[in-house]
Amino acid sequence: MTRRRLFGITAGTAATLAVTGAPAAAQGAGTPARRSPEGATELDAEGAWRKLAEGNRRFVTGRQVHPHESLRWRESLVQGQHPFAVVLGCADSRVPPELVFDHGLGDLFTIRSAGEVLDTSVLGSVEYAVEHLAVPLVVVLGHAKCGAVSAAVDVVRGRTQVYGDVSALVRSIEPAVLATPADADDARFLAAAVNNQAKRVAALAVERSVTLRTAVQHHGVKVIAASYQLDTGEVTRLT
Ligand SMILES: [Zn+2]
Questions:
Q1: Considering only CA atoms, which of 25, 24, 236 is closest in space to residue 130?
Q2: Ligand 1 centroid, distance to 198 Cα (angstroms)
Q3: Are 95 and 228 within 8 A, CB to CB?
Q4: What is the CA(9)–ligand 1 centre distance, in A?
Q5: Which of 79, 138, 183, 219 has its CA 20 to 30 A from that of 106?
Q6: Coil, strand or helix at 77
Q7: CATH node for 3-18+33-237
Q8: Would the pTM count as exceeding 0.85?
Q9: Any bridge partners for residue 138, and if so which?
Q10: 108 CA to middle of ligand 1, Å?
C-alpha cells in the first residue's frame, strides 16, 4: 500500500491544509491522519535510507552522477518540492549533505547548525518537512573532528571558555559529552562524543516533538543518527 493511499488524503485537501497551516487535525480517535501532498515521495524510511546510502557510495568511490542539477529539472521544481529525506547536519563546510549523498535540487530537506544542535527553529523545520512535505526519513548527521563538539569537550574539561551565543551552542552539546565514557585517547573520546551527540539529537527530536512522535509511531517515519568520516567520505548509520 502506498503512503498516499495509507494516509487517505487527497491532493486538494493536502494543499489546503498546507496553506492554512492547520494542525493534522482531522485526527480524532485512532490513528492520526497524515497529509501526503501530490508528488510526495513514495519511498518509505528504509527506501529513503538506501537511496542516501547509494549516493554516499558514489561519493566515496568518486563515481558521483550529480543528479538533479539540470536547467529542466530546476524549472520543474518551481511548482513545489518533494524531498525524500531530511538531513539535519553540522554547519561545518566540509560536510554539505547534497555533495556527501550525491543528490541535487529538491532531493534533500537540509537543516544545518553547528553540532546539529536542536533548538525550536531547527525542530520546527524538521516538523515542517515531515508534516507538510511527507518526508519519511530524518537523518541527524554528525561528523568526525566536529569543532562544536570538540569545543564542548574542552569546556567540560575546563580547558577553554566560550562567549556570546556560542556558549549556548556548547551548553546544549555538553550532555552528550558528559554521557561519553572516559577515554585516555582524546581523538577516540571526541569520535565517541560526536556519535553520542548525533544519537542524542535524534532521540531528543522525537521526545520533544508531538508531530515527530506521531509520525514515528503511526506513519513509519524514522529519525536516525549517522556519522560522516572526513577522510573516506563515508557515512555510517548509527541507529
Ligand atoms: Zn561539526
A1: 24
A2: 10
A3: yes
A4: 39
A5: 219
A6: coil
A7: 3.40.1050.10
A8: yes
A9: 86, 223
A10: 19
pLDDT < 70 regions, the chain = 1-33, 35
One-character DSSP codes across 107-174: TEEEEE-GGG---HHHHHHHHHHHHHS---EEEEEEETT-HHHHHHHHHHTTS----THHHHHHHHHH
How many angstroms separate the alpha carbon of residue 196 from the centre of ligand 1?
A: 13
3-state secondary structure of 235: strand
Return the bridge partners of 111, or none. 88
Cα 68 to ligand 1 centre (Å):
27
Gap from CA of 130 to ligand 1 centroid (Å): 24
- At 48-80, the pLDDT tens digits run 999 999 999 999 999 999 999 999 999 999 999
Query: How many angstroms does the Cα of residue 232 sit away from the middle of ligand 1?
Result: 16
* Spatial CA neighbour of 46 closest among 107, 137, 133, 135: 137
Query: Strand 235-237 relative to strand 137-143: parallel, antiparallel, unpaired?
Result: unpaired
